[in-house]
Design goal:
Elements lengths: L1 E3 L10 E8 L4 E6 L3 E8 L4 E8 L4 E10 L14 E11 L2 E11 L5 E6 L8 E4 L3
Antiparallel strand pairs: 1-9, 2-3, 2-6, 2-10, 3-4, 4-9, 5-8, 6-7, 7-8
Length: 133
């Protein structure tokens, strides 16, 4: 079962320790002092949705989280291989700053993507720590 990505009710008051993406970007793991949270992406027909980057350092006590609008990728960006690359952001405000998890959807312009919180850890995943930029 999946929860639609909204404010992370369960994560408030936790201390953010690390963020990981799976190789290929299908999954995201948010590690806190209390537990780990897992997310996946889903693309509509004929599109590809993936976790792309973390902006900011994942640390500090979680104060709030929200979905934010992200700018479109510029022409010539290495990830812009389709007609349209939509960018989405999940902003987490902490006691030490702001960290944004960016995910993207690549398509011919007619399709979109989404992300959901999973109720279990995905199996056979190689996690790559995202230290933030």
């Amino acid at each position: 079962m999946k929860k639609a990505l909204n404010l992370f009710d369960d994560i408030f008051g936790s201390t953010l320790k690390a963020i990981y993406f799976s190789a290929g970007g299908d999954y995201c793991k948010i590690e806190t002092d209390k537990q780990s949270y897992y997310m996946d992406t889903e693309g509509d027909c004929c599109s590809n949705t993936y976790f792309a980057e973390v902006i900011g350092k994942p640390e500090g006590g979680v104060l709030e989280s929200e979905n934010i609008d992200m700018p479109e990728l510029p022409v010539g960006h290495p990830d812009k291989d389709d007609e349209l690359v939509q960018c989405y952001g999940i902003e987490i405000k902490t006691t030490k700053g702001v960290v944004t998890i960016v995910y993207r959807n690549s398509s011919n312009g007619y399709y979109g993507g989404s992300s959901s919180i999973m109720d279990h850890e995905p199996k056979n995943v190689k996690w790559i720590e995202q230290t933030g930029i």
